[in-house]
Fold these 2 entries.
Entry 1:
Amino acid sequence: MDKQKAVILLSGGLDSATCLAIAQSEGYDVYGVTFDYGQRHNIELDAAKRIADRAGIPLLTIRFDMRLWGGSALTSDEINVPHGEGGDHETAPVTYVPARNLIFLSFGVSYAETLGAKDIFIGVNSMDYSGYPDCRDAFVKAFQQTATLGTKAIDENWQFNIHAPLQYMKKSEIITRGMELGVDYSMTHSCYSPDPDGFPCEECDSCTLRIRAFAELGMRDPALRKR
Amino acid sequence: MDKQKAVILLSGGLDSATCLAIAQSEGYDVYGVTFDYGQRHNIELDAAKRIADRAGIPLLTIRFDMRLWGGSALTSDEINVPHGEGGDHETAPVTYVPARNLIFLSFGVSYAETLGAKDIFIGVNSMDYSGYPDCRDAFVKAFQQTATLGTKAIDENWQFNIHAPLQYMKKSEIITRGMELGVDYSMTHSCYSPDPDGFPCEECDSCTLRIRAFAELGMRDPALRKR
């Protein structure tokens, strides 16, 4: 029997790379999709491509420009990425991009429907990113229902499954799981404001979270510049 | 007091042009958004621009290419647009684009969040397009809830309102309402496969519906080629 197809949203970061390994470990025939949405740098797109290649999956790149309407430090030159703010937010930080996961998941559903896939994986996590409404379980569950109602699924009597296996894992648990599955974290890129050579700044929220999690495991983040 | 802002999804067609007029008649300060998504022709984008200009509203054009993953006669060169099939479908026709309105509405939400708008207008209609799951009321209602959960709305304790004022109107009722509001239907474009001069084919589902509705009102569709 053919393996069931699944779509995964790949950002090039640590979480989605782990999520991909989990999807493959569950036996899915995985199709990647990544987004060139006007983020400040293309390093994460290169990382997504490397990760997809290593996992042996195809990668669809969808391009659109969220800078046209702005609203986030990740897409606007007028808002600075904060440094050393730590990872705990109760309200959306300036790196929040309005409705980004809603848009990404919607494209994922369209691609999945065309492929004949019912399963979509997304590496969202509400432990580290509680300030991002579009990373929370309530959103993911509601989206799953909306996607089913808005596609052929509803007429054909099946439903989309949005898998968010990292939802309640701490960063160090995610890394541990990924290492068991052979993820090469040196290939991943999570930094919001990399240096001119493409290495992580080691100071932004995203860097701080990773570095701390690897340290908890007695390791140095393998994506950092060699010393 | 400043007028409340609203976002409208404009396709250049008859329905969204009417929906825009309704939004303005309700007193909203309307911001248009249209999509260049790899549809076969740009005539509808030109129509959207004309309609926005005439209504005196700004128009944001968001570009992405759904042909990359295909799946519809409207975006694929390999699937033909059917002629004279009539407007009544119980399952999705080949002109259905997977999750199109899910993607469009998601961009609308992102734009609205950046603008500080809570209201989004979409000219979907489930009388004529019952075969399109993403035009139905159940989908629109579920989307509204998902959008609220996935944005700052949930933390700020407000909700998005997705307005679909044409949902239960017949095409002839839509036209009657639009004419009361001064919509110039000669500017609108609805045809799936226009002729080389950009005039409607008069044979596709979309043309057939319009022509019939104007005929019921004792009129000739003003967008047709002059005879």
Note: Chain B touches chain A through 46 residues (CB under 8 Å).
Entry 2:
Amino acid sequence: MSTAYRIALDAMSGDHGLSAVVPAALAALKDFDDVHLILVGDERQIRDAMTQHGAGKPERLQVRHASEVVAMDELPAAALKKKKDSSMRVAINLVQAGEADAVVSAGNTGALMATARFVLRTLPGIDRPAICTAIPSMQGHTHMLDLGANVDSAAEHLYQFALMGSELVRSVDNKPAPRVALLNIGEEAIKGNEQVKAANRLLQDSPLNYTGYVEGDGIYLGSADVIVCDGFVGNVALKTSEGLAKMVNNRLKAGFTRNALTRLAGLVSLPVLSGFRKQVDPRRYNGASLLGLRGIAIKSHGGADSLAFANAIGIARTEIIQKVPQRISDRVTELLNKR
Amino acid sequence: MSTAYRIALDAMSGDHGLSAVVPAALAALKDFDDVHLILVGDERQIRDAMTQHGAGKPERLQVRHASEVVAMDELPAAALKKKKDSSMRVAINLVQAGEADAVVSAGNTGALMATARFVLRTLPGIDRPAICTAIPSMQGHTHMLDLGANVDSAAEHLYQFALMGSELVRSVDNKPAPRVALLNIGEEAIKGNEQVKAANRLLQDSPLNYTGYVEGDGIYLGSADVIVCDGFVGNVALKTSEGLAKMVNNRLKAGFTRNALTRLAGLVSLPVLSGFRKQVDPRRYNGASLLGLRGIAIKSHGGADSLAFANAIGIARTEIIQKVPQRISDRVTELLNKR
């Protein structure tokens, strides 16, 4: 039997739940013949959704019943304590038990991180897991972390984020020495807060390909392969970008629908405009890695549709193939021994 | 004699120096017949630039000689100590001496803030001045502060920023009760760092029209009139937006210039595209207020061209008319007495 990459999907979470996850699962089975999926959630609802999508009984798809669902606004601690049979928890348990190689969930970030951390545990040498995602840039894309798992990160944490991000990019982008930069508010050495300055010193002494500070615009200019920051800062940068992208789309749309003449211009420009939208389509970048855990966990955007969720499944598959947690663990051990 | 609003311009700073400031000054004199400008810098170079722009000897324009220039990468402390005859310093001195009602400089932010703070002093009750600017949003615009003057802001500082931002918007946008929000990484009360949570409590107990937390996308969705954050976070949000805007423009341009057909589409779409560009043109929002000082100081973007610099002059004029520092001072005194 050939290799199968087994991915557990939290089928009930996210704004769209089953109506995004089921078609995404079916698409992924089509795209990847080496993927085996386990849909976790209310079995009857899953079966119904599959029938609706005319799925029949796909060979590489299993259903695992879970009776509860973690709400999108549920407190992480509450989800962890009280929802032991949630689709999210059961899907993560499958990874811990070795029945799945990765989990993908569009559930609430706090609950997902807390549960994954509790069930899977962090890798030795890693204090805090971090959330990392690829963001489109003028040079391709930039990986950025942390995006909200941690606030008030100390220098040592930022250093660990850099290490994990670098190893992720080495694995999934096949870049032998990813350029790692620290997000700061100025490129001069005097700027920044104490944590960033101390992390800068740690990184300068590290074997990583550390290129120094970048400012916020460096994310999109593609000034680095990995950009490291505290989770508060990273989350604000990401959400700010989402807001600006929405405004840009909104204004372009308004401009092209103002009158008959602009509508015509819009029609003529359709190939350009849809090409542009595709290039910056956040769905094609959906899927953030929870790095630093003893297992692969991918967070899909809460609002992800089936195309976006399918992308997150693809990321899970790549991380399985690349054995990302093992590689991070090896690298941490190697660097800790060098210190 | 009618009222004259006297604005000192640091004529030598910024990436473009005189070649941006002189035409901006001439444009402002045309736009506003109540504005009197004092160009501060190397007198001969200023006169030469004026001749180049065919300016003659405008009635409401004075030149004040200053022999030095603060470099764009000069350390703030060095500029403050060693460049006592810089165009920046002399322009600020004019405000302190009562010879000008406001100063505008495109010089380096750190040096400008340090010098303005040293020369003008902070208002009573204000611990730290903050940088505030308007950002275009889907609802018009949002004022945001701090944008980089402070890192590691404590709750009390964030509270003071909120108060200053609210009073600025009351003055310049004529909104009686601006909606004030705190930038956070989630709208749920449990998220955020300690400073933000503590500032949230202070603001809930304040007479400001405080509407709670917003995430980064709220800046562009127009969820609030004033968005308050630490300077590290605000600067990253602003620079990230600059980077994304650059990428969007770049990709649209590339899309419309790909071949003859797309060029034609671009030509047909020109009115829409230039309307779009105009709406989000950062030059039309250029001019950040250094709030919390005993005087009006406006920071123009280092890369500002003459159109952008002229906009900053307009902002200085509005703040003079509205007596912004006095109004902030009155409001601080009022609120401190209430506590």
Note: Chain A has two domains: 1-123+292-323, 127-289.
